[in-house]
What we know:
125 residues, alpha/beta, 5 strands, globular, single chain, 50% helix
Amino acid sequence: MCVEAAVWRHTVVPGLPEVELFERVNRRPGVVEARLWPDKDRVDGEAFVPLLDWHLEWDMKDSASAVALVDRLRRKPPATRNIVVPDYRGPVQQRELQDLVPDLRVWTATEVVAKVARVACKAAR
Length: 125
C-alpha cells in the first residue's frame, strides 16, 4: 500500500517511535496493561500495573531541535507532565529539554521501559 508523501512524513513516520515504545512496554501481559493513543490521542501512551494501582502516561516528542520543541510545548502544553524523547535523540537532548522545561519530566524511551519493568517486577513478587 502506498501513501502520499505528506501523509507518510506527518503521520506514519512520527508514529513509529510511539509504536515501538508501546511494544516494548507491553511485553508483560497480565502484569502491565498498556494503551497507545488513549482517549482519542490525549497522550501518546500509558501503562498500568493494576496490582499496585500504578499508572504512567507519556507524550512522545521527536524533534531535532530542543529549542523548537520547547517553543511548541509552550504554545500547546502537553496533557501530561511526562515527555519522552526517542533513544536516538540521546541523553544530551533529554538534559537540554529538562533544563528548558523544568516543570516537565523528560524521559528517554529506554527509561520509560525500565521504569515500567521495575514496577512490574514489584507487582510480580
